[in-house]
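Here comes an entry:

___
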Amino acid sequence: MKQNEIIKMLEKLTDKERDALQSAVSSIYDGDESDFLKSLWEIVTIIIGDNLDEEGLDIEDILKVIDPALVKKS
């Protein structure tokens, strides 16, 4: 899956799906920002079923699509 396809896929998430993704991440991290970002990355990787690193995406690209406010936190 190419980078632009991954971004398009994430942009199509409904508000409910975005909330579910954020809830899933929040439920598995221990309050450490780096753990949160790592957990988010792992969940998105599982959903997409691809090696995102090979596509040139990084966590900030994912955060911009899911919740731009998270970019400021990272």
Notes: The CA atoms of residues 36 and 54 lie 22 Å apart. Helices lie at 3-11, 15-28, 33-48, 59-66, 68-73.
